[in-house]
Fold:
Amino acid sequence: MIKSATILTCAIGLCFAGIASAQNKSAVQPAPFPGKESLFQGKFKMYKNGANIVVVPNKTAEGKPWVWRARFWRHQPQFDLAMLEKGYHLVYCNVSGLYGNPTAVERWNKYYKWLVEEHGFSKKPVLEGMSRGGLIVYNWAIANPDKVAAIYGDAPVMDMRSWPGAGNKATLRTYKFKDAAEASAYQGYPVDNLKPLAQAGVPIIHVVGDADKVVPVAENTAIAEKRYKALGGIFKVIHKKEVGHHPHSLKDPTPIVQFIEQHMK
Structure:
């Protein structure tokens, strides 16, 4: 009898020990992403790991959709916040100084693969390119047209002959041109290579200031819009009259969000 009671007592003890152990494990669950944890706009958990950042929505939407932003992190985040509220993850991969060149595209390829294969992200992110961020967004999309849900460009650079200029040191350095003449003759800028995106049916929306003298609309978005529509693609432009390169985005990003939701693949 005493032996049976002892066995029962041990069994109960082991049971409670197991429960306590399980509780301790759940209390110290690892972070969903590597890097330093903080808050994005004081509301969403953010994980920064070197050049890479992932912001997690409070409730993830079905299919784990995401917005992949290029350049000027945190600047005019209205669209980013709206999409986070809808359950999208927000991702950033800093390739600053590379101007969307092949090295930048390859870095994005590796990060994309990690997010999709290791973390189950949707295979088609929404790409967001602000100003010079348009270069990496479009060059990556052109190299991976089947991996893009939609593109949102905000006063985006579409042609380096326009900005920073064919003879600019950054243009020559990042693309290894020998001189301005070679840079001018190059046919690999986004405005010259929109066909793969049109064939893949990628919807595009741009927000531009009509008085932009930094990235002139006539030399960038207007050319892209005309060519993309001629290819049969969907390309919407929201014009801000008497507005320059700044401020970016819209105070109320609803028109951008609605376009994305209506047309994204």
